[in-house]
Amino acid sequence: MKVENSAPHKVVIVGGGFGGLYAAQKLAKAPVQVTLIDKRNFHVFQPLLYQVATGGLSPADISSPLRSLLKDNKNTEVLMGEVTKIDPERQTVKLRYREISYDSLILATGVTHQYFGKDWSEKAPGLKTIEDAIEMRRRVFIAFETAEKELNPEKRKEWLTFVLVGGGSAGVELAGALGELAHGTLKEDFRHIKTSDARIILVHSSEHILPTYPPELSKKAKASLERLGVTVKTGTRVIDITDNGITLKTGDNLEQIQARTVLWAAGMKASAMANLVAEATEAELDKSGRVKVTPNFHVPKYDNIFVIGDLAYYDHIKGKPLPGVAPVAMQQGQYVARLIQSRLKGKTLEPFRYIDWGNLSVIGKHAAVVDVKGIKLSGFLAWLFWLFIHVFYLLEFDNKLIVMVQWAWSYFTNNKGARLITTPGEQPMIQYEDSNTAYNGLANGKQDPVAQTVTVQ
């Protein structure tokens, strides 16, 4: 509806991910006042988080300060904070330190990990944020470092066993990167272990990994992973995870794997914002906690409260919910921004149309699968296409340049330069055994020096 007063229309955007950021950028020249709120002061390019987790890129390579990205938007302010309450009647959102009023509210806070009712978050970290990626990187490299010091062959094998849960794009790309790490990047770095002895196991509950891809591409992706030394277990579910192992079920068969590092890439649930929305607006949530929205992305009872991106359950195109991928959030953010501008002019906007550019996943050097507009590619050509698309969508020029240089360096040297353990965490305790204990698994056939009975970190 057309606004008659002269005060600028106030748009509050909660969440600086793809949806919120693209909405803010689309409103840059609109006659509105925009406030973007996020718990962090930066936007992260989530599709490349797995490269941070495996030491290929540094966090800053795929992150951009929100203030920098929006500094040319003279109608926009950025606030670092967390929304704790929504009052749709007063049209305010409450932060811990103040209230902010709005005329239109866009909620785009994304999702977090879904453990299907199990308390596995500490034992199997997921990969949704920079903090997650840094923690995953710490665990991966601590595992190799601990294996290097471990004298007991069975315990050493536990540290060199990595289990990844979830065979979607995130799990497949993470498994491929770990395979490259163990069989390429690290193979000359250690003296007492062969990193190529590492067991990397990818577990997926469905019949095929990459279930949204055509079956022939899923099979090619599996073959590429196996060439990198990754064992792929499909039709397999996780029953339990402990500090040093995981229990799997395939059909009627149970299998226990002793593994010190379990990484999670299966399932998602909406962020806590969804519950705030449901409580304030009586909006309905789906089984993953996402907010069910109308064809124009607003909640049913309030046409000025929009929910977009992974936080939204949108099933108004062919009756199927849109996938939780970056292009969906980008297009939704732009659409809602156009819708707000159309309303201010007293006009209507055509229904939302999602342009599906397809799927693409990388599986190590020279290997990827691409399904774009009916064009199915795999191998080297698909890998080049994947490289181009990801560099193209990075938001800042310096990020594009740095990532291209890092990838070129890694391509020619097989080296990943961000293999850092930077976050605090208790290092595993190892009891050194005396020299009479069997320990004959040293790399290069070297004899281990006489060990003393001491505890080291």
UniProtKB/TrEMBL annotation:
Tagged with keyword Transcription: no
User: According to its UniProt record, which protein family does this protein belong to?
Assistant: Belongs to the NADH dehydrogenase family.
Keywords attached to this Swiss-Prot or TrEMBL record, sorted alphabetically, are: FAD, Flavoprotein, NAD, Oxidoreductase
Question: Where in this chain does the record put each FAD/NAD(P)-binding domain?
Answer: 10-333
List the InterPro entries.
FAD/NAD-bd_sf, FAD/NAD-binding_dom, NDH-2
Designated name of the protein: NADH:ubiquinone reductase (non-electrogenic)
Tell me the classification of the organism that encodes this protein: Bacteria, Bacillati, Cyanobacteriota, Cyanophyceae, Oscillatoriophycideae
- List the catalysed reactions: a quinone + NADH + H(+) = a quinol + NAD(+)
